[in-house]
Design a protein that fits this description.
Oligomer: single chain
Order of helices and strands: HEEHHEEEHHHHHHH
Radius of gyration: 19 Å
Helix content: 55-70%
Low-confidence stretches: 1-12, 181-188
Strand content: 5-15%
Structural class: mainly alpha
């Protein structure tokens, strides 16, 4: 019986593999785009109804302008690379929240939220594009799907996989309810350091496709490093890369961005 269950698990994992756009990394996707959207959009809807919207017209216009440009560049990339079918899962929204918290996020489906606290750090559309590009990259790479898939395996193991994920919708909703805590502290879904670095690379590419200067991502993250000085935990205690590692990796990525520049 154990051998049969192991075989079923192996077959399921084999058929549930996908690959990340731009990087080509193979990933386990037991949760589909439709399932992620169905499970997470209600959380987003509840949050956005009560979140204090910014009345700063400059901030609101900047987030909308940069967000739309990154979204347009993202959809063009997907169309140009045989991934047009994925566009149906994005319904872009761009919201600016009145809060001093230094934060931004992109929910599955392209729901982009930027806090005023972060906007106080950015000096240009290019720097904001580094943030938006990074957050959109999480959505394009299906990092939420992947994290939920990992949680399914961790919580239910071979039992649920061996039954071909019977009653998966209930399990997914339970994971989403625990993963997304939208409120004063923003999104609580934690991506791995691998996901964060992958989103940095993809975000650089997307902002470059949108006509922004990828070098400004470096200046933004240097500001973030200064803003968090003395407060950030060591890298091995955090799911995020250390600021120094993130900056170092971005410096390595920059020469490659030349190929993503619009003609």
């Amino acid at each position: 019986m154990k051998k049969i269950t192991g075989l079923l698990v192996a077959m399921l994992l084999l058929t549930a593999c996908g690959s990340v756009p731009l990087t080509g990394r193979r990933q386990m996707l037991l949760v589909s785009d439709a399932e992620v959207l169905n499970a997470s959009l209600s959380q987003y809807s509840d949050y956005i109804k009560t979140a204090p919207k910014s009345t700063n017209t400059t901030y609101v216009a900047e987030v909308s302008r940069v967000g739309k440009n990154i979204a347009t560049a993202t959809e063009k990339y997907l169309r140009d690379n045989g991934l047009e079918s994925e566009i149906q899962y994005f319904a872009w929204e761009f919201n600016t929240i009145k809060s001093d918290e230094i934060n931004a996020f992109c929910m599955p489906g392209g729901k982009i939220v930027v806090y005023e606290g972060l906007l106080k750090l950015v000096a240009s559309d290019d720097e904001l594009a580094a943030v938006v590009g990074h957050e959109v990259a999480h959505a394009v790479a299906r990092h939420s799907n992947e994290r939920m898939s990992q949680e399914l395996v961790a919580q239910y193991g071979a039992a649920i996989l061996g039954q071909a994920l019977a009653n998966k919708s209930t399990a997914i909703q339970q994971i989403v309810n625990g993963a997304y805590g939208l409120g004063g502290q923003g999104v609580l879904l934690k991506y791995s350091r691998k996901h964060e670095l992958e989103a940095d690379y993809m975000g650089l590419a997307l902002m470059t496709m949108g006509g922004y200067d990828p070098n400004k991502a470096l200046t933004f993250w240097q500001k973030m490093s200064a803003a968090s000085a003395g407060n950030a935990p060591p890298e091995f205690l955090s799911t995020h890369p250390s600021d120094s590692r993130r900056i170092s990796e971005i410096q390595k990525y920059l020469p490659e961005m030349e190929k993503y520049k619009t003609k």
